[in-house]
Please model this.
Amino acid sequence: MTEVKYVFVTGGVTSSLGKGIISSSLAKLLQARGYSVTIQKLDPYINVDPGTLNPYEHGECYVTLDGAETDLDLGHYERFLNVPTSQANNVTTGRIYQTVINKERKGDYLGKTVQIIPHITDEIKRRIKLVGSGNKFDIVITEIGGTVGDMESLPYIESVRQLKWELGSRNCIVIHLTLVPYLSASGELKTKPTQHSVKALLEAGIQPEILVLRTEKSLNNDIKRKVALFTNVEEKAVIESVDVTTIYEVPLKMLDEQLDRTVLRKLELPVSEEPPLAEWREFLKRLKNPKHSVRVGLIGKYVELPDAYKSISESFIHSGARNECKVDVEYIHSEDITAENVNEKLHGLKGILVAPGFGSRGIDGKILTAKYARENNIPFLGICLGMQCAVIEFARNVLHLDGAHSTEINHKTRYPVIDLMEEQKSVSDKGGTMRLGGYKCSIAKGSLAHKIYGKTDIIERHRHRYEFNDRFNDDFKNNGMVPSGINPESNLVEIMEIPDHKWFIGVQFHPEYSSTVVNPHPLFVNFIKACIE
Ligand code: GLN
Model:
């Protein structure tokens, strides 16, 4: 194929309609039909990336293999498609403006007034086309964050209008996602919000080709016809997306609704027979018919907002299905755990995961949790800060290094078992300056990690500034906590484990970012297996 085709996904009526899931589901179906597809997210906020955002504001920050701190929707894209994303897949208004302003300072626009149209819109279009360049993809799906009508998304919508005009409607279509609310008092589904939101798009010069209507209750043909009539959209292209129990069912729903066929028809691309989705269906079958169930604790300080741990909870779903096991995740606030109540709080858990995090809030609860898991022989997976807490706990209670800590929390500690990485010491900017993205790790033969991965050379994604302090290496090794994974170039410790324990692993990296439906992460799969046993 010569031309790349572009599909834009916009949202109306309200936020949180699941544009990311619809985009991922469509991409999955197109991929299954043999097209190479990628998904991009455009975020209308001024932060250059979400790395500096509190998880309470925006959920988890997802990290790509190439080290970009991105929107959590990119996690869905990877989990559905099983194809890595990159920095180019997530662009924010901040990044757009930063590029344009840097160019202005360099004199690239010398003599010109720099304006939203054409300079900002040109940069947006350049970023959209950039993902499609290099003949890697047949179709690029670009999800526009926010809701149509928001002041912030105007430049994006305008860019889409221009692209449609430049590329023509056989190369560039818009799917608009809206909500059809159900009013229980009158027992009616209401289409007015959808009509208004399409009007807002039309005012911006965009006629959507396809509407996806999110709804609690199935829509009848009259409703679809009415929406079609009021919005100039072909009736067959008004598609319902009714609530389902798991996001992983959405691709099959969209297949039934022929979203993929409609998209291909509009883009004038060949439609194959039924796409092969055997692996996907097998996953769903296992997910819905578990033979076991385990209760696992996720100890973190952002538990009020489960989106803050999106990749972890999805990894539990993938690894649970692989083990034919329902994983009941109990979110436990680390601030609520004290020396007095730890036994009671964690009692009955078949496995414990201590989550990543930053700063001192809730750290004591995490350290107490690591101790509880170690002493009670409960499968333990510590991720990033979770591993650091396990190290601190071991130093204090097994090595008797009183007051051992991470210098992130106590920079005056006598025993800095977790310390700032050398290359971090001169860093002052907070944005994009951590150790980010994929790094190699060599696994020690014969370790639990080796058994789990089945190989010695792996690459995992990182997001941290602090690390295990090498100085204490021998002390730990001699007393039963061993570094079983090391970065072959920098010697940084990436995995710590306790060989005498049933299953105790701390990882400095983030396995949750690379778990997908088709390839559940081996650490999670094996952790759940240990919890079942
Ligand atoms: N705050 C710790 C560090 O920067 C851990 C980071 C994390 O858990 N992602 O090293």
Summary: The chain has a mean pLDDT of 95. The radius of gyration is 25 Å. The pocket of glutamine is lined by residues 356-358, 384-385, 408, 463-466 (CB under 6 Å).
